[in-house]
């Protein structure tokens, strides 16, 4: 049992002709057929979902993977395999391991894009979808901002130094208590044997991310969005630079005709850590 009340498990997935281990955390009754899969943002980890999982665990089995190259999961031998189609393939393997026919899906940024891709497929196992600050148009200015820090080799002499840097980079997450910030920082740093600190993820995840910026303009994923037919909730940060207000509004009129909640004072991306955000997700998932 982990300190957040979860159980640690893993599943072997296939990618690039090799097996790699995807670790995941699980809360709630392991035999409960009501499953929520929660997937983190680009540089985050499964630990982020502790507050949400504990709020759901009395009625749901909550599963949160570390996508390859993050947290306790394997790093991939080929950096160009760090992309959404490969992640979605891993998610399908994970859902098969869970031995259920359908799941609800909660995704933040990268995790939201994965959920969109899987929900758009025929015979999708997703029955309800929560999208935190991603959508069918991804603003290039935001992608360039993220590219400026993701994958940069980092070493911090102290935890306080790591915390200061991460809090500065994560300022768009919006208002959090000091305890919540400590939680978010601790989820993404690891201590080396020499006493210094670094980030938990493989810097090579940035390789395909930056390669994708070679194409000009915003990223257009409307074909995915228009294929989704499951009940969907979109959470948008009021000051998001990735998901524009206009795109979010169109998401309520096309595809799944999503419900939209805009969170004041928040940018990219809502973390689903504050109690008010947790309650929004819980209420939507319980609406069966």
How would you portray this structure in words?
The chain has 288 residues and is of the alpha/beta class. The chain has a domain at 7-137 and 220-285: Alpha/Beta hydrolase fold, catalytic domain (Rossmann fold, 3-Layer(aba) Sandwich), CATH 3.40.50. 31% of the residues lie in helices and 22% in strands. The protein is built from ten helices and twelve strands. The chain has an eight-stranded mixed β-sheet with strand order 1-2-4-3-5-6-11-12, sandwiched between helices. Strand 8 and strand 9 (197-199) form a beta hairpin. The longest helix is centred in the first third of the chain and has 15 residues, at 84-98. The protein is globular. The mean pLDDT is 96.
List low-pLDDT spans. Answer: none
Would you tell me the structural class of the helices and strands?
Answer: alpha/beta
- Helix % is 25-40%
Distance between the termini: 30 Å
CATH architecture of the domain at 7-137 and 220-285: 3-Layer(aba) Sandwich
Number of helices: 10
Averaging pLDDT over every residue, what do you get? Answer: 96
CATH superfamily of the domain at 7-137 and 220-285: Alpha/Beta hydrolase fold, catalytic domain
Order of helices and strands: EEEHEHEHEEHHHEEHEHEHEH
Main sheet properties: 8 strands, mixed
């Amino acid at each position: 049992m982990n300190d957040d009340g979860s159980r640690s498990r893993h599943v072997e997935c296939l990618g690039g002709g090799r097996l790699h281990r995807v670790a995941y955390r699980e809360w709630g009754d392991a035999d409960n057929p009501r499953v929520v899969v929660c997937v983190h943002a680009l540089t985050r980890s499964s630990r982020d979902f502790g507050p949400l999982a504990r709020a759901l665990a009395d009625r749901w089995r909550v599963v949160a993977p570390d996508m390859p190259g993050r947290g306790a999961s394997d790093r991939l031998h080929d950096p160009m395999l760090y992309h959404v189609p490969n992640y979605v393939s891993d998610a399908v393997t994970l859902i098969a391991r869970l031995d259920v026919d359908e799941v609800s899906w909660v995704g933040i940024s990268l995790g939201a894009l994965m959920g969109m891709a899987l929900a758009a497929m025929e015979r999708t196992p997703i029955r309800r979808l929560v999208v935190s600050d991603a959508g069918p148009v991804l603003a290039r200015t935001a992608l360039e901002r993220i590219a400026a820090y993701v994958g940069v080799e980092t070493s911090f002499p102290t935890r306080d130094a790591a915390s200061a840097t991460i809090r500065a980079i994560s300022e768009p997450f919006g208002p959090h208590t000091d305890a919540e910030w400590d939680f978010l920082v601790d989820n993404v740093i690891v201590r080396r044997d020499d006493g210094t600190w670094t980030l938990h993820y493989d810097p090579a995840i940035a390789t395909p991310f930056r390669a994708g910026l070679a194409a000009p303009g915003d990223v257009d994923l409307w074909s995915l969005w228009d294929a989704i037919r499951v009940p969907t909730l979109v959470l948008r940060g009021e000051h998001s630079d990735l998901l524009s207000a206009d795109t979010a509004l169109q998401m309520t009129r096309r595809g799944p005709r999503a419900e939209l909640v805009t969170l004041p004072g928040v940018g990219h991306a809502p973390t689903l850590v504050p109690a008010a955000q947790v309650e929004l997700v819980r209420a939507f998932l319980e609406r069966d």
